[in-house]
Specification:
single chain, mainly alpha, two-stranded parallel ribbon, 1% strand, GTPase activator activity, Tuberin/Ral-act_asu
């Protein structure tokens, strides 16, 4: 209720005290935390860049102490145990600041194995779901800072952030190794020498009475999708505008590389709105096994996540109350039930800001963060620019939506989201300001085939810097397909909802099919 006001002189004293190597580690960490909590972003960036080595040393000592305290099973007093959990939260708070303020140093693989091992401990399947969710955020902060400099075992860790997804990289099990001790080394090959690292153990196991997510695969996939959006604007890059765009492009490409084929095994690479296939799909019969696929809930989550950025009507984001520490110890908080209840889904999935009516085609205009600008609005614009920034990503959006039209009617909410996205696109064709870039009519001299586009990109490869990306986005020459192409794709893809044969023994599914077909037909009445 009451807090002690910290003056500038006290902060300066704390800076000197945490820099004093003669003091013990707990005292240095206490003063480091005081400093971090009471300095602004600019001061924090300068402080961490100047003292990154000693700050990491202090943090690591504090983390080891917090781990040891949490492992003391003979403590029976609740207040003492709670103090140890609060100690862990304080340590993770400083860890997050290291990841936020030192991206350039981390990008050079500074403390790469040490940070990876810490993240592996936090992501251990034996931890509380709350801690694992926070650890996913930390991993995305670290992984995007590494970028293309990330080692292959870091890619394997990213590919296995969601339980049930195995690493496709030969010889790199990723986080799945944590479930198979004593070979849970994540990134170290024990066959290379007689010395092997100690076993990676959970840091904070689930407490008594804590409920696990009803669908852990879906829960952690939504956590990952949320993190790759919200965390791109948290890092304090020297060149935010370009680095944030580059970071999400990197994360999105990695997500497609490692998760796309597993979630959608029937993904069709031939989908191309620039050369649309106008052949109507074949009549299908309802499959009883399709809706029971372990990946079906993940497909629904990915569809809804994608539709959140492509639809023109967005829910208003309500920013959560900020806290100076990372919470990992709420016994009363439990993950929401299965994804088909909208209220809990809204709490776990990212809520997005109402899209501005101005065009989102210019990176320079939409990703410049001002003092009063909502970071989530910046992230929203970056995501949409990446989704609409290349033919490959635009075709990805339409193919994922095509997959949505193939869903059984037990997943009707996801199908309605896809229909709503196309409805917005088609009905806004008279308003150029809100029109998606791929619906703009191609210019007469713009490349019309993938080969011509590839030649143009190769010719301009030397100009792939900040100014080039802004210029190419402002013109949108390469990604324009035109309204007719989009209509052809929508007609052929949406025909799947009419061509799914549902037997009379499923009256509720028949009602869903009739409603969805009406929604498709209503688009043509516009």
């Amino acid at each position: 209720m009451f807090s002690k006001k910290v003056h500038t002189a006290d902060i300066k004293k704390s800076i000197l005290k945490f820099q004093d190597s003669k003091k013990d580690s707990p005292s240095r960490f206490k003063h480091l935390k005081i400093v971090v909590e009471h300095i602004d972003v600019r001061e924090g960036r300068n402080l961490f860049e100047s003292n990154y080595s000693s700050i990491y040393y202090i943090f690591y000592d504090a983390l080891v102490a917090a781990e040891n305290n949490l492992k003391q099973r003979d403590i029976t007093f609740h207040l003492v145990h709670k103090a140890h959990k609060e100690e862990l939260e304080s340590v993770l708070f400083v860890f997050e600041k290291i990841l936020i303020y030192c991206p350039d140093i981390i990008g050079s693989r500074w403390q790469c194995h040490s940070i990876a091992r810490i993240l592996a401990k936090l992501l251990h399947p034996g931890n509380s779901w709350k801690l694992r969710k926070e650890a996913t955020r930390f991993f995305i902060l670290w992984y995007q800072a590494l970028g293309e400099n990330a080692p292959i075992w870091a890619d394997a860790m990213f590919a296995t952030l969601v339980p049930g997804f195995s690493s496709p990289i030969p010889g790199q099990p990723g986080l799945t190794a944590l479930a198979n001790p004593p070979s849970n080394t994540v990134f170290h090959d024990p066959n290379q020498g007689p010395v092997s690292p100690s076993e990676i153990l959970p840091v904070y196991p689930p407490q008594s009475g804590e409920k696990h997510p009803d669908d852990s695969m879906k829960f952690y996939l939504e956590t990952l999708l949320e993190a790759i959006v919200t965390q791109i604007v948290k890092i304090e890059w020297k060149d935010k505008q370009y680095s944030q765009y580059k970071s999400f492009t990197f994360l999105f490409d990695k997500f497609k590389q490692y998760y796309q084929k597993l979630i959608f095994p029937q993904y069709a690479n031939k989908t191309d709105i620039y050369v649309p296939n106008i052949d109507l799909p074949n009549l299908r019969k309802l499959s009883k096994d399709e809706s029971h696929s372990p990946y079906m809930s993940c497909r629904v989550s990915l569809i809804k996540w994608l539709a959140s950025f492509t639809s023109l009507r967005q829910p208003v984001y309500q920013p959560p109350s900020s806290s100076p520490s990372i919470r990992v110890m709420s016994e009363s908080e439990t993950p929401g039930p299965d994804p088909h209840t909208s209220s809990q889904e809204a709490k776990r999935s990212i809520s997005l800001v109402q899209q501005d009516t101005s065009s989102t085609s210019n990176i320079a205009d939409n990703t410049t963060t001002s003092v009063t600008e909502d970071p989530l609005a910046v992230a929203f614009n970056i995501v949409r620019q990446v989704l609409y920034g290349s033919r490959d990503n635009i075709n990805f959006v339409h193919e994922i939506f095509r997959q949505g039209f193939l869903f059984p009617f037990t997943c009707s909410p996801a199908i309605r989201r896809v229909i709503a996205a196309y409805k917005d696109w088609i009905h806004c064709c008279g308003n150029i300001a809100t029109l998606p870039v791929f619906m703009l009519e191609p210019l007469v001299d713009s490349p019309s085939s993938p080969d011509e586009q590839s030649q143009l990109l190769t010719a301009k490869s030397r100009l792939r810097n900040h100014s080039y990306i802004g210029a190419i986005q402002s013109e949108n020459v390469l990604v324009r397909a035109g309204l007719q192409n989009v209509l052809q794709v929508f007609i052929t893809h949406s025909a799947n909802v009419f061509l799914l044969e549902v037997g009379s023994e499923y009256p509720l599914l028949l009602e869903e099919q009739v409603d969805i077909c009406k929604r498709v037909l209503n688009i043509y009445r516009h």
